[in-house]
Amino acid sequence: MTDYKLDKEKLKKLEEYIDSMEKKEGALINILHEAQDMFGYLPEDLQLFIARKLNIPAAKVFGVTTFYSFFTMEPHGKHVISICMGTACFVKGAEKILKEFKNKLNIKDNNTSEDGLFTIDTLRCVGACGLAPVVTVDGKVYGRVKVEDVEKILSEYTNG
Amino acid sequence: MEKINSLTKLRTLKEEYKSLMKHRFVNEEINSNQKSNTLSANTNRALKDILVCGGTGCEASGSINVSKVFIKEVENLGLQDRVKIIKTGCFGFCEKGPIVKIMPDNIFYIEVDEEKAKLIIEEHIVKGNLADSCLYNLPNTEQKLPHQNDLPFYKKQMRIALRNCGLINPEDIRECIAVDGYEALGRALIEMDPLQVINEVKKSGLRGRGGGGFPTGTKWEMTRKSESDIKYVICNADEGDPGAFMDRSILEGDPHSVLEAMAIAGYSMGATKGYIYIRAEYPLAINRLRIAIKQAYDIGLLGENILGSGFSFDVDLVYGAGAFICGEETALINSIEGGRGEPTVKPPYPSQIGLWKKPTNINNVETLANINPILLRGADWFSSIGTEKSKGTKVFALAGKINNVGLVEVPMGITLREIIFELGGGIRHNKKFKAVQTGGPSGGCIPEEYLDTPIDYESLTKIGSMMGSGGMIVMDEDDCMVNISKFYLEFSVDESCGRCTACRIGNKRLHEILTDISEGKGTMEHIEGLKSLGNIIKDASLCGLGQSSPNPILSTINFFLDEYIAHVKDKTCPAGVCTSLLKYHINEEKCIGCTACAKSCPVKAISGEVKSPHIINKELCIKCGACEAKCKFNAITRR
Amino acid sequence: MKMVNATINGFQVSVPEGTTILDAAKKVNVKIPTLCYLDLHDIKMVNRTASCRVCLVEIEGRRNLAPACATEVFEGMIIKTDTLRTIKARRTMVELLLSDHPTDCLVCEKNTQCQLQLIAAELGIRKIKYKGDMSNYKKDSSSGALYRNLDKCIMCRRCETMCNEVQTCHILSAVDRGFETVVAPAFGWPMLETMCTFCGQCVAVCPTAALTQVSNVSKVWDVLADPDRYVIVQTAPAIRAALGEKFDMEPGTIVTGKMAAALRRLGFRKVFDTDFAADVTVVEEAHEFIDRLQKGGTLPILTSCCPSWVKFIEHQFPALVDVPSTCKSPHIMFGAIAKTYLAEKMDIDPSKIVVVSIMPCIAKKYEITRPELEHEGQKNVDIVITTRELTDMINEAGLDFRNLPEEDFDHPLGESTGASVIFGTTGGVIEATLRTAYEWLTNETLEKVEFHDVRGLEGLKEAVININGEDIRIGVAHGLGNARALLESIESGKSKYHAIEIMACPGGCIDGGGQPYHFGNIEIVKKRMEALYNEDRNKKLRKSHENPAVIKLYEEYLGEIGGEKAHYLLHTHYTPRKRI
């Protein structure tokens, strides 16, 4: 425990969660979900902790973490903007909306704005196709989004 | 609630719950005397259920707040004893959500917001009148349609898998039992033997609804035949096709139908453990499932010695983590085992060597949702619906440039034209239909001339597409087929697991060629190259993803070759979509020189005097479209 | 055994149920090209991921093409391997691989030995049709032993299979998804920071130059050209059984004499033999074993001449670091002796001596960087090159190896017994040690010097030798997966052995990560093994303690066996390391 650069209380909670699992074999993905819920992302140290706790190779944990889109090793910005890129949203212009968000936040290569306020993610189908194109910010759903709405949506989070 | 330990007890409880819910069902007498905008004088004093759609789409549109308003108003009026507000699963008519339905009056209200909710209470509940402004208006007429089944969206539907969505509260198992939930399991366990169950499913002709179309009864039989002390039943709720939300709606609206079917499957093949592999992007479905599982365990419909039969069945939830490939059987198994979701070679099939190397049966959510009705109403009934080789119904998620976006369930054999133009209400904004895409990234685009194709597994494959899981995207004249196939291929490239050469590198190269074409750098050889490489990737890939990922390209080249040629020879995009090929142009006759466009141009490419026609410098233009968006006179074109 | 009948290209074939199309085709002389497939079932390694998609064949009634290496023949199967459809598909697969592969074959480490190069040539590919994005990864030579160039990875997964299933080190895993997928260690760390033991088995099976050794050839040339340095060379026993293969000689030909001649011509001042030092190792280790046996010391004793396996125990079983023998590995002992005893004897300033070891493995490259393996500020051994690197030097010098005369090693560090020769194969070290230990414990002459129970490719072997009325139990493991099994039994207190020999490489040093590639032909490994045992038989002296040069070493310089000086120069300690 002492060599991990991680919040000790959260780590203890995670350990309790892992200990409570009946069948640890195959539980890696569920545990990674829980860990990411707690810490917001999965840094190296956290993966090492999980690997040692489950007695599985670190390389395997890393291989699994990097395989699934849900898991991230980058800390998220304060607000997570998810733009749905499912087919229904795509044909209704989701690409343009993504571009607009990126432009307004000056995000080019990585996904988080420099001030650490926003992270842009793309999702494959939130399942609200009737409201296409759909954007969620911290889970709040915005439907029938137009390019003009982007600035307004962002201002909700920067002025508050 | 105490545990139900016999089939008799279950049936007794069913009658009890049914009678408690009897105003939930359509009262034929009342409805046959219905005039268009009045309610029978008796009804406004009777018990009423206000059903509010609790699907993801409607909740995102505010149905939760609508429910809150209903509850508050009803409380204020002191009507809690006879007016109940029930949250149900998805009605399917997402375009017009939030949906509210009043029973037993059978009145269907659309686009209900908080204001309209108050109106409905006032007009319908208190005064006994129809809240006209909330009714569905038949397009291009004055006519209002108060009854769900009269709406063109619902008329030709046959809701079997979706039978309870929009009818019951998915978070109350009693309502599920009232509508025959777990009756099929009871019959199977107590009145049938495993072989009879399998034969019934086989006879019904049910085929896998996840896209594969493999005969379900045969699959169950294969797992049954494998000899092992331990076997598993898995429900594939990964629903990765973008634009597909059939499974999600079933899980949110009628989770017990899936749990019951898994237990029945387990009984028929000797498995006592089930897993539901559900994608993490479905938090509402996960929540509803959790509640359903707990309730089922609490009253003994899952767990040990179900209904005193001696048969036990356990179900656990396993979460996906954002990998489309995990919808493939062997990849799904690897994922449940805690590893990377990489498919492995088949044979051996999961029914022989599956989860933890034990025989495993994997079925899609929609497939399972059909099991209860098949056992209760009989295989003969089920096989009387549909076509010769494709029995029963199919749920489709209609989306795209269509008026009625939503979820429909129709008998196999219905034509694409009926779905798009009758249920779907035709193309939005009166634009021209161009193509309909079925099967998601594994399917093909179908043009106008095939719209009368009856929907079934074989006929769709014959025209270069496939049934897929049910996603149906409608495209119009403003969609570029090259861009569409690029979009789908991008998805496949993103989601490819990376194991085999054909898909890992092949799809990437296909995508690069497509990108070149969409940027005006393509040649005729490229188009030939797409065909030949695409076909080889189909032939050589290890799993279904690679074997079907070239389908969008191949079908669009087949049916829309002229668009590809335009991109390649003329360097234009006829639909006006591919940015690099757009040529923004100001129509001198329409331009009044208001300078709005020039002001909006980020690279100052537009010049002109005030009140004179402006002109775009094509060298400087970066094709961002800002000018077109700003022009109020429709003077700017981009093709 | 149920047989099934099938037709391949019109030929009827009958094979046991469970046979793959690939193997069935061999029976009717139909060759199906493969790339990722590797069958080394003798050492429990079979890589059958069907991921390269090169071995595709047509099966009547099946919609798509099937991978021959992973598809079992069923009754009545009709297979076609040479239709236009299959040929075109295979070709496209290789073209796709080439489109994401550096085209620097001319200057690549694996030029003429690369399996991708070979198959591209076989299929007659003349143009790289598909041009696009290419993988670009950071190269890793952090360990000084293993070189990783992931741009050349073709995702065959052999290294992963070897490292995880056979060696059970689990250092490697496929990482990321789709086009970016590659096989890498945890977090993409440099190898030196992982628990990698540098056994080099991944190198031995990698079909391209994605995994190779870090080359020290230029270092050796540099030091040979320096008139100020006195460069001496030693060769491990495993080299002489394999070097000939690189010069078109039959696998299993012992080329000791020509090897010595070649080394001399390359410019080494003295050409010595690691076997000499191996005899010293036996003497020290036998002494240590008897000491522990008689004085109630830690048992079992584990042999320690394999640095890869030493790193394995340091990482994976840190609590057991006091169990192995404290003896240094033979070539390190040699280095220590050369820079003291030899320097004195020949009156050379030790700081001018450069010790070069020719080794069959890459772990030795890592070993010499261990800080404790030095004497008065000087490394025991300075440079390690592998059998493959030696071949490169011989070719560069234009030597006609086959026609070189048979020459002898130099003295006084060139004489060896048969016991030392068999160090190069699994079971050899313990057998050699037993020959000496037996005689010392019983004070009798050992008539039957060959211990066949500890020989062969079986992963775990055991033998029981009755010494002075007591049953002495010997265990042998090769391949780290087997080693793990033995170590776990020691950890849990259930081990019944007195002495255990462990070698990291399956088969022992003869199949080391630095040996000539066997390309999946395990028979070559078996022949190398046989050659060493034959060489042992041909030697007059077959017991290490009878080596007159060794006896002289102790008389003239070291003094007592296992004594203070011997301990100081020839023994070491191990470090428990972090579990990653």
What does the model show?
The complex is a heterotrimer of chains A (160), B (639) and C (580). Chain A has helices at 8-19, 28-39, 44-54, 58-67, 87-91, 94-105, 149-158; strands at 79-84, 118-123, 135-137, 140-142. In chain A, helix 2 packs antiparallel against helix 3 and helix 3 (44-54) crosses helix 4. The radius of gyration of chain A is 18 Å and the shape is elongated. Chain A is of the alpha+beta class and 160 residues long. In chain B, helix 8 packs across helix 16 (371-377) and helix 9 packs across helix 12 (255-269). Chain B is of the alpha/beta class and 639 residues long. In chain B, the strands form 6 sheets. Chain B has a 5-stranded mixed β-sheet. A 4-stranded mixed β-sheet of chain B has the order 2-1-3-4, covered by helices on one side. With 580 residues, chain C is α/β, with parallel strands linked by helices. Helix content of chain C is 34%, strand content 16%. In chain C, a hairpin with a 2-residue loop joins strand 19 and strand 20 (470-478). The relative contact order of chain C is 0.12. Chains in contact: A-B, A-C, B-C.
- The count of DSSP E runs of length 2 or more, i.e. the number of strands of chain B, is 19
Largest sheet of chain B: 5 strands, mixed
Number of beta strands of chain C:
21
Radius of gyration of chain C (CA) equals 25 Å
- Percent of residues in helices of chain C: 25-40%
